[in-house]
Amino acid sequence: MASFRAFLNSPVGPKTTHFWGPVSNWGFILAGLADTQKPPELISGQMTGVLCVYSALFMRFAWVVRPRNHFLMVTHASNECVQLYQLSRWAKGQWYLQHKEDKPTTSQ
């Protein structure tokens, strides 16, 4: 009971925005995971790249802020993984489409 009370009153506990901010960021992660089932042609390379940079910057922020916000760090590390996977799918899809257009079609 004492450890739960300590968690509730912690500087990064559920009474603060340092807790609810990362909770809301899980929406990005869940959306990214849902998008893994869609074709790569529907992925926005620019938006996925922006989300990669965003998560990388906030991973650093979560590490240097005092007190360290490990929950925020894990949230952005998870989003970084999902977005990098999506970016790789987008890049492979672009490469495939480019090479598909370069190949001459044989017709009889």
From TrEMBL:
Residue spans crossing the bilayer: 43-63
The keyword Membrane is annotated on this UniProt entry: yes
Gene Ontology BP annotations: pyruvate import into mitochondria
Family assignment from sequence similarity: Belongs to the mitochondrial pyruvate carrier (MPC) (TC 2.A.105) family.
Pfam families to which the protein is assigned, alphabetical: MPC
Originating organism: Coffea arabica (Arabian coffee)
GO cellular component, one term: mitochondrial inner membrane
Function text: Mediates the uptake of pyruvate into mitochondria.
Keyword presence, Membrane: yes
Gene: LOC113698502
InterPro entries linked: MPC
UniProt protein name: Mitochondrial pyruvate carrier
